[in-house]
TrEMBL record:
Keywords, comma-separated and alphabetical: Signal
InterPro entries reported in the protein's UniProt record: Leu-rich_rpt, LRR_dom_sf, PRK1-6/SRF4-like
Pfam families: LRR_1 (PF00560), LRR_8 (PF13855)
Gene3D superfamilies assigned to the protein according to its UniProt record, in alphabetical order: Ribonuclease Inhibitor
Species, as recorded: Salix suchowensis
Highest taxon above the source species: Eukaryota
Keyword Transit peptide carried by entry: no
Signal peptide: 1-23
Keyword DNA-binding on entry: no
Protein name: Uncharacterized protein
Length: 249
């Protein structure tokens, strides 16, 4: 009891006396530690611990980068060593390829959504598996979302259409296997849309012709059918890849 109140008092005094410091909010640190647990303590996060170090000041590496502003995390980038290297995936954990059967994509995203100021989120080759839940849209400040090379399947959640700040959406090399969505015209600042190597089906989404900001459109390696609409209005388009299904590996 004595220790506790002394601790709280010193924290209070510390924050009171240091209004200008940029210590990461402890609630944000807790979220990061939770994420580390969800990701089953990958090696690249071994420096994330609860020993009072400000996680914002860890030096960037090829595997993890984080940027903070005003005591909150604004950018989080991680690359793991579990690329989506299988041709068939039936929606269950695969030993040493995906995270374990204990991983829950739903609670992972619930935790992520507590990083309410994120602008950049890139989680690549981490063995993340499951359907991508609709609540991903709670990350409404995101401008850049890259979840490539994981084991996500099912549909691309319709609520992503409400994430109007998105400029880059990259879901390459996953197992999305529903029809390709047709709400891309809700994302008026979208410049890069990349859905390469999934199992998306159905007609080419005609909403894409109205996303005038697009510079890169990559839909190759899916089962998209039908006629290509007129893309003349996409005057900034720089890269268009609609090639057929390739064998991935
Ligand atoms: C982190 O940033 C460095 C330098 O900007 C870059 O070389 C590295 O690839 C980044 N790592 C990730 C995981 O994005
Ligand atoms: C998508 O893949 C999952 C996992 O393999 C499977 O359970 C589901 O039935 C598939 N859905 C469609 C529409 O093919
Ligand atoms: C999954 O969770 C159970 C119960 O919490 C635990 O005993 C087991 O070790 C966990 N498995 C892995 C691979 O983390
Ligand atoms: C789209 O980008 C413009 C220019 O960068 C910006 O002013 C605007 O706020 C953005 N729109 C949204 C919905 O974020």
């Amino acid at each position: 009891m004595g220790y506790c109140s002394w601790f709280l008092l010193s924290c209070f005094l510390w924050s009171f006396l240091n209004p200008g410091t940029h210590q990461l909010q402890s609630s944000q640190t807790q979220v990061l530690l939770q994420l580390r647990k969800h990701l089953e303590y990958p090696n690249q996060l071994e420096f994330w611990n609860n020993h009072g170090m400000d996680l914002c000041y860890l030096s960037p590496s090829t595997q993890v980068n984080m940027t903070c502003q005003d005591n909150v995390v604004t950018e989080l980038r991680m690359v793991g060593d579990k690329p989506a290297m299988v041709n068939s995936f039936v929606g269950f954990a695969i030993t040493s390829q995906t995270l374990s059967g204990n991983f829950s994509m739903d609670s992972f995203v619930t935790t992520l959504a507590r990083l309410t100021s994120l602008r950049v989120l890139s989680l690549v080759s981490l063995g993340i598996w499951g359907p991508l839940p609709d609540k991903i849209h709670r990350l409404s400040t995101l401008e850049y979302l890259d979840l490539s090379s994981n084991y996500l399947f099912g549909s691309i959640p319709p609520k992503i259409s409400t994430m109007v700040k998105l400029q880059t959406l990259n879901l390459d090399d996953n197992f999305f296997n529903d029809t390709i969505p047709d709400w891309f015209d809700s994302l008026s600042n979208l410049t890069i849309l990349s859905l390469r190597n999934n199992q998306l089906k159905g007609p080419f989404p005609s909403s894409i012709q109205r996303v005038a900001s697009l510079t890169d459109l990559i839909l190759s390696g899916n089962d998209i059918s039908g006629k290509l609409p007129n893309l003349d209005r996409l005057s900034k388009l720089n890269m268009l890849d609609l090639s057929e299904k390739q064998f991935r590996f």
